[in-house]
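Fresh eyes needed here. Kindly weigh in on this sequence plus structure tokens:
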Amino acid sequence: MDFSFTQEQQMLQETCRRYLQDHASVASRHVRIHQPLPHDSAIWQGLAELGLLALHVAPEYDGLGCGSTEAMLVMQAAGECLLLEPLAASAIVATGLIQELATEAQCAEWLPAMAQGQCITVLAHEELASRDERLAIKTTAIKEGAGYRLQGHKCVIPHAMGADLLLVSALLDGQLCVFALPRTTANLRMVPCPLVDGTLAADLFLDGVTVPAASLLGNGANAHIALADALDRSLAALCAEAVGALDKLLAATADYCRTRQQFGVPISSFQALRHRLAEMLMHVEQARSMSYLAAVRCTDPDLALRAQTLSAAKVIIGQACSFVGQQAVQLHGGMGVTDELDVSHYFKRLMAIELQCGSTDHHLQAFAAGLTSMQPQASGKL
């Protein structure tokens, strides 16, 4: 079986990689994470001009209509430079959710603008209730006159402060649905929440927010399916981003070991440290393989197989994030946690990835539960 990428896919990744290295390097990140809003509109517009914001947008809405493999390659490049812009959140997750759920008029209104970089859209779904069951939420929507009234609290939504449009999930008559809210909607209160990796998130408080009927995506039906699909795409994109960051962190650590000397020789000549580097490499390669599998399975119609695969991928990649990150910091010594060194930024981002979209422990339990449910029932006969 041939697992190599096509020439077009390789060109897409290299184009993305070169642009990000020139305009969104890790060195520039050191400064941007201390700004009130890390998002850079010039970088975002550059991504749009390259067509990267139109990856998942259908051709009829000025998009490229690419699949999950292309998204994986782009997100690997984004992970290499620790991109602060919401590439996955808007160009992969939100575009897919809108196309799957919204009406043609809504798609025509939002998707071309998103593809051209004129509208950043972010899914606001996470709540305290959804930590253990991802579709369990308490935000409610009540029909009121010609529109709806929303009440609830969304927790730690990355990139919400820089979004133009928020896709807010809520329960309408007990059924999951999604509303599109401009960030400037009245009574929508946003509290900034800086994360450990420098990403700016926000808590959203919907205190009687009133929205028109046109804000409801589609007719409100089948939103639970579309939301589950969007969350699966988000997890696969996160896995790909982790692989890009892991590659760079391993390379930086190996290079440091070759140049750092003790007792007159490079520390890379010490057998114990070689073993550590070898174990780091094994974790990175396992993570890469599982990222490929996650990209292939994240749209699989077999929901049980998809869930098992994505949980397995998140476990392996989460373990790699933890092991490689910790070893890199230890091998660099005390300076491995200073902001001046790129290693600390990769380490912090990998820490955040390990907890996003469900922690390693959560997905390990989910994978085990899936295996149990797949076991044949005992007949009771010897």
The radius of gyration is 22 Å. The chain has eleven helices and nine strands. The CA atoms of residues 86 and 270 lie 41 Å apart. Residues 223-259 form the longest helix (37 residues).
